[in-house]
Target: Flagellar basal-body rod protein FlgG
Amino acid sequence: MRALYTAATGMMAQELNVQVISNNIANVRTTGYKRQRVHFQDLLYEHFRRAGTQTSDQNTQVPAGTFVGSGVKTSSTGRVMSQGNLTPTEKQYDVAIRGEGFFRIQMPDGRTAYSRDGSFDLDSQGRLVTRDGYVVQPGITVPNNATGVSINAQGTVEVTLPGQTAPQQLGQIQLSRFINKVGLESIGDNLFVETAGSGPAIDGLGGEEGFGTLQQNYLEEGNVQAVTELSSLIAAQRAYEMNSKVISAADQMMQSTSQIMR
Model:
């Protein structure tokens, strides 16, 4: 019976939906996390009579056709790239982006990854790195005797050195943006890499046209709304249950049919 297979596609789709929602909820406190959203599409239809079909010699036509769908499929699990709330941390190397852009991160294999997580620190060489030790481009090294580190809205890093009154500029944190940032591929560790779908990175600096500004001593929270995710979870659970009811009903109908045929 067709209803069995149709309802099965609905159950599989809602199972994936629940998995995505659970991942969002698990990352509700992940810095710079962008929540995922599942998009669905209906499957092919079988047409028994198409709309507009001629029904008599007088050219009368059927106003509405007769057709049955075959279920649902998942079209994408895209990310919602909206801005998360900025929270103060009181750490001098924590930086948040207010607006468009991603931090450029140098991976150990030479690739460039991109992140909204600005929870940076210094490694043993004084380089500005992520919590996993990946270098923040363009590679800023802070002297071990530096004091009063400051990062302005444009990403310029300045420090005060002993015996000097004027601050010394060490470099400027670079940002990147994409024509289609939803097309970025997540590789874990709060990192993304570009794909053919995202297009090439457009590099720039904070405050330039199309780019956001940087804010020191702040981090961007994930954009997950717990109440919204719980509501979506309940809706997905109910949809899953309804599809399972369809399978039960179809099974009972098939049983009744087989008993009649006996």
In short: The first strand starts at residue 36 and ends at 42.
